[in-house]
Amino acid sequence: MSTIGIFPASGGLGTSTYTHLLKAVPASNVVLISRHPEKTPQIYKDQGVHLRQASYEASPAELEAAFQGINTLFLISYPSHVHEYRTGLHIPALDAAHRAGVKHVFYSSLAFALPDKSTTLAEVMGAHLDTEAHLRKLAEQDPSFSWTSIREGLYHESFPIYTAFLDLKDESTTEILIPHDGSGPGISWA
Ligand SMILES: NC(=O)c1ccc[n+]([C@@H]2O[C@H](COP(=O)([O-])OP(=O)(O)OC[C@H]3O[C@@H](n4cnc5c(N)ncnc54)[C@H](OP(=O)(O)O)[C@@H]3O)[C@@H](O)[C@H]2O)c1
């Protein structure tokens, strides 16, 4: 069975993914890479999941070492809206994964691109498009490499942003104003 890696594995999306994955594949085939692997809950350490340390800001050689032996990598985007900084971390991580021999990358992208699929009006989507373009380039250069971009909808926990920062605990709020007449395509929640 191939080895599946997740980086970074410790956040909300990473943890949800590996807790689900470990119900389906042996822990010995799963590599969790994070800045603080010692914080991984004991229950998963006991199952024999592999733990490795790396940060997005690690050197190319350190990232390559962290990805060694992994066939399929879930690369979770760096948690920031800052386009250039985020792109600048994703591309070296992808290059390191490719050099390490990773054959397929799943990437956590976002569904904020215009219909031509390569342009966006949303700052937060910029690094995702750059990252997808780099994945496309790697696959064009190396036919043994493939990728899947998961263009996720809005996480439903973000709903306050779209409901005028409604605070469910604030009972004084009686009205919320949403700048949308309801006739559009709507919001795809994840
Ligand atoms: N589609 C949407 O609506 C939506 C909503 C929210 C977030 N997102 C995006 O989805 C991705 C994951 O979100 P999430 O909710 O899982 O985020 P999260 O729970 O805040 O987790 C962030 C993860 O990033 C790691 N991290 C932070 N800085 C790092 C670094 N320098 N090197 C390596 N790892 C680093 C954290 O590791 P530590 O444990 O070491 O801190 C943690 O594993 C992010 O890119 C986020 O922007 C999308």
TrEMBL record:
Highest taxon, organism lineage: Eukaryota
Bilayer-spanning residue ranges: none
Gene3D superfamilies according to UniProt: NAD(P)-binding Rossmann-like Domain
One Pfam family hit: NmrA
Coiled coil: none
Domain NmrA-like: 2-179
PANTHER family for the chain: NMRA-LIKE DOMAIN-CONTAINING PROTEIN, QUINONE OXIDOREDUCTASE 2
Protein name: NmrA-like domain-containing protein
